[in-house]
Amino acid sequence: MKTSINEFIAGLEQRTPGENEFHQAVEEVIGSVWDFYMQNPRYQKANILGRMVEPERIIMFRVPWVDDRGEVQVNRGYRVEFNSALGPYKGGLRFHASVTLSILKFLGFEQTFKNSLTTLPMGGGKGGSDFSPKGKSDGEIMRFCQSFMTELYRHIGPNVDVPAGDIGVGGREIGYLFGQYKRLKNEFTGVLTGKGLAWGGSLIRPEATGFGAVYFVQHMLKQLKMDIDGLTVGVSGFGNVAWGAITKLNELGGKVVTISGPDGYVYDANGIKGEKVDYLLELRASNNDIVEPYAREFGAEFVAGKRPWEVPVNVAMPCATENEVGLDDAKNLAKNGAYLLAEVSNMGCTTEAAEYLSENIVYAPGKAVNAGGVAVSGLEMSQNSMRISWPREEVDARLKVIMENIHETCVNYGKRSGNVNKTDYIKGANVGGFVKVADAMLAQGVV
Ligand code: NAP
């Protein structure tokens, strides 16, 4: 039986009430793969899309822990094992007060397509908790991570599900999680990625998402016959991903003029580089606010309560969180002459903003732009399995090739009927990611 796209979305909304972020992510994908799906009856017959929007498994659990005052706290833990057609579930853990099942479902759904785009053998998953490490002591974070893993360890494994970091989960949290897994299972395996270098981590992993995003931007610019050297770039956030992107942009001659936090942004016309980046890292390690102290220290402008997209830049790279670029921001960027927006955060743009940017300038979605992070996680898994570690140059070279291939996939599947010279990166990334997963699901039968 043939359904229309509207009936499909309405059915999903009815089955998953209130999961707004998940609906947004599904709509974005379905909108661009629908025609392709309709042209391929074998996918319809096997109800591939119907199965793709239903996670294979969701685990939800209580995470009790004791704070520094001796009081018992409780948070909620999740792991959404979305799709294992291409390999073990793979995707980060997010620790942030805003985490809900809907957010993790959107992230796990996106992750499935992203992992497919890398061409590495990884399925899609995502997990986390409504616990925020910000403002907590190291001891509190360790006790939380140990409690979280005390339940999660039953559901993951190097050939089953391999979590990594995301917002609020960096090297410190991965260390505590790994330590507890090792203690409970009595085995040293590559069950998490983003590990420390001395105990199974990969070189370049901390920088990979940001570096990969900049490599992707290089290819986007090449299509426009431009280069990063000499361009101004607006970045948001200042977390792990923003740091990697800023480092590589500076190396290639770009000038980064903004960073941001939940309370506002900094505009630094002289460029955020060198000792300024080191200072930001120190602030970040101290668990303190970053943006305002930076402005004070270096005499830059702090704009409270606003997003950085009102600043004229050539390239915009949102690196903080979902829906951080709305339609008005998108219009501002285009009006001020930006050539492109490369989304580094997951679903960094609202649907309207993404559509506007895609039509009026050039826009590429997070699942393509930020796939370098999970790609190097995949390389970390390979190194762990082989019990070797590749030198920095080798990992970086592989990352560059992967990002080039993802860009090529977007160009191949993202041809526009009206304007053959301009790539539709939304369609390119979604159809390119979809095909491999769909074919694997077909081959594996109704499971
Ligand atoms: P992170 O290290 O925790 O940094 C997040 C940054 O965003 C911080 O600067 C944070 O500021 C800021 N932020 C958080 N919520 C915000 C809000 N509501 N408004 C404005 N700023 C906000 O996380 P990350 O790993 O860099 O991840 C950033 C984005 O990249 C996320 O969308 C994530 O899903 C995506 N991503 C990450 C990876 C990875 O390898 N880590 C891979 C692919 C995609 P405060 O610290 O002051 O809260």
UniProtKB/TrEMBL annotation:
Site positions for Important for catalysis: 166
Gene Ontology biological-process annotations: glutamate biosynthetic process
Positions of NAD(+) binding: 209, 240
Domain annotation Glutamate/phenylalanine/leucine/valine/L-tryptophan dehydrogenase C-terminal: ranges: 202-445
Keywords recorded for this protein, A-Z: NAD, Nucleotide-binding, Oxidoreductase
Binding site for substrate: 90, 111, 114, 165, 377
Domain of life: Bacteria
NCBIfam families with a match to the protein in the record: PRK09414.1, PRK14030.1
Assembly mode: Homohexamer.
Protein name in the entry: Glutamate dehydrogenase
